[in-house]
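Submission sheet (multi-component)
Chains listed below:
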Amino acid sequence: MSASVPPRLPVRAPLPRVWPGYLIGLAFILIASGEMIVDRTAAQQETLLTYLTWLIGLAYWLFCVHRFHRVLRESAGGAYPISPARAAGFHLIPFYNLYWLFRWTNAAAGFVNGRISGAFMRRGWTGGLLLAGFVLARFDAGLGLIALFAMAQLIRRDIRRATEAPA
Amino acid sequence: MSSSPPVDRPRWDGAVSAGLGAGFGYVLFRAAVNFWTAHWEERIEEALAIALVGLGIVRFLEPLIGRLRHFLGIPEEHMLTPMPERGRRVIRLAIFAILVLASVSHALLHDMIKRNVAGTVGLLVVALLIPGGITYAWLVGARKDPPRAVRYGTATALVLGALHLFVALVVITLMNRATEGASPVSLADLERAVIFNGLAWGALGAAGGLVIDRLKGPRPAWSVAIALMAIALVLDLPALHDPSVLVYGLDDFAKIIGWGLGLIAYPRANRLFMTARRATPAPQA
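Outcome: structure written.
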């Protein structure tokens, strides 16, 4: 007796959740403030805990970028030009990453605007605001992380609308 | 990818049971240490009171409740099959031991709470929040397909373990500064303590999650409890070698034992810890 097993549908990756990013940003602010209470000189130095929190925030940001691109690729049937690993990995190349912020957000804008009629995601602006977020993070990492994840939320919204729209 | 309902009463109850177990395990151990270090006259007085209460319950209250049950026609619970005389004696002895233990626990807890209400409640809340939070994360992760108890449990444990100590140390510093004008901990000490505490809780969260995700036995709650105790033993080994910090190691261990017992005591724990994969029957070939 042979049983016919129905073919398993490919699992589509969900878009990343943004709220953990906000939480990491808030945790950074809480930790930096707490350390200043314990030692007033903490503000002038880079401490281990704040550094770790920033690293966790950065890792989560890279995860979000990776996942955005996985969703874009799956949605485009593999035809999307930037692979998830490349999208996340190029953030780590000094100086090139400044250009890369514009490069991947413009490619995403091209995909989104192609799916939804009209210029829904404006080319250049998203990359510029992300760059502003990273610059802000140089001065205040907590606020910078919150700004980055606020942008991630907008990107997520646009990608969701584009992927839900008929191809 | 499966989605799960956001509010789930049994999960919540399971987490509370685990958290309360940990909280009371910790407070009870602290109370026992207080009792042990008290003056001998106080100790004898306390022990006498406990023995009297135990005797009163076994020789008077229990038979009285039995009579009342008989009078009101309420059937005896847990006595569905007739038992031989020897078995009955063993059960009576076990009941006596449980009652004495309950009386001792009650007296110790009462003594501890009487000494420092705010401190005890604080200890209880902290001891309840972290194990309760980790247990909840496990229960949510176990129902994902594929199971995610390791991931959810470890992340929750790391965050809660690090954050609670950080907040506690900052609050203590603020209070000390108001009275003495000096900070009781240095920045380096604070960082070391917070990171170590986060990692220690993270190890517990990972161990329990691993058991839930990977083991396929019929009693996952027992397996989780054993894994927690094994990890706690490893983490507290250095403390067990050093008499000056022995009590801190043991109170951590008491907390973990309480956590494990809280898990085992929750009647639906085994079913809740069954991962989505195990809970779904395999397709018939």
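Remark: The two ends of chain A are 41 Å apart (CA to CA).
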